[in-house]
Each structure stands twice: as C-alpha cells, then as structure tokens.
C-alpha cells in the first residue's frame, strides 16, 4: 500500500475458489472535503464500475471482499450476484411465509392478506421477512443482468465490469 496526497495505490494478490493467485493493482482517488468546523476530511472515490458506468461515490470506507476494494454499494451488488444458493434459500423462505398465510408461492402472485385469528404483529413481521427476502433476490437478479450486459459491452471494446 502506497499513498500520495490524492491517491491510494494498492498492490495485492487474490485467489478465489481454488483458482490461481492473481496480482491486482488498484488505484483509488482520495478527495479532501472541508469540514464545517474547519479542517478537512479525506474520502475515497469508489473505483467500482458497474455496467460500464463508474461508481464514483465518495465514501469513507472501502470493502475488500472480492477482487477489488469497493464501496458498500458496489460490494453488496457484487456479493449478491455471487451467491445464487443464498437466493434460493431466501426465495424458499419467502414462499414458505406466503403459503403459511394461505397464499401461493412466487413473487408474481398477490401477497396473501392477514388470516383470521393471526396477530397483526405476527402478520406484519412475516410479511416484512418475505418482502425483504424477495427484494434482495430481485436486486441480485438485476445485477446479474447488468453483468451479462457489461460482458456484451466488453466485446465491443467498452470498459469491463470492475476495471
Ligand atoms: Zn462503488
């Protein structure tokens, strides 16, 4: 790790899922933002690129779970699209809730109303769980679509997914 006043240079190796080690060089811009009470605070500019569009968010933290160090938003998107098993589990959980409430499984069907005799609080909690799971799955799928699109863009000589 080296840094200039306005750049952080990272040089490291990653290995994912039993594949070969790979060298990664990443340069992250640093900006200094004046504080309201004087002085200034440094922030990173996220280097993530999703679907050929640079993220560029100003963030105080970068996460290094994947190949690159990225902001929370990019990291979450990249992470979600890598764990299809987790989506399945989430979907199954959401469907279980739907069926327990007397509805049909699947996001396309209407969410069942509160069954008679069930506490409002219980119903709200279950609905919350199902919606949360479905939202995350939805998010993950849209990211994968972006990924595929960015691969197609790549072939036409545009920028790649993360670099
Ligand atoms: Zn980002």
Describe the structure.
This protein has 163 residues and is an alpha+beta fold. It has three helices and seven strands; from the N terminus they run βββββββααα. The strands form two sheets. It has a five-stranded antiparallel β-sheet, with no helix packed on it. Helix 2 (84-100) runs antiparallel to helix 3.
Compile the SSE list and pairings:
Elements: E1 2-4, E2 7-14, E3 22-34, E4 40-45, E5 49-50, E6 53-54, E7 58-59, H1 72-80, H2 84-100, H3 120-155
Antiparallel strand pairs: 1-2, 2-3, 3-4, 4-7, 5-6
Helix pairs in contact: 2-3
The chain binds zinc ion.
**Largest pleated sheet:** 5 strands, antiparallel
Bound molecules: zinc ion
Discrete helix count:
3
Q: Strand order across the biggest sheet?
A: 1-2-3-4-7
- Give the % helix: 25-40%
Structural class: alpha+beta
Write a concise keyword list for the protein shown above:
163 residues, alpha+beta, five-stranded antiparallel sheet, two-stranded antiparallel ribbon, 3 helices, 38% helix, disordered C terminus, binds zinc ion
In short, what is this structure?
38% of the residues lie in helices and 22% in strands.
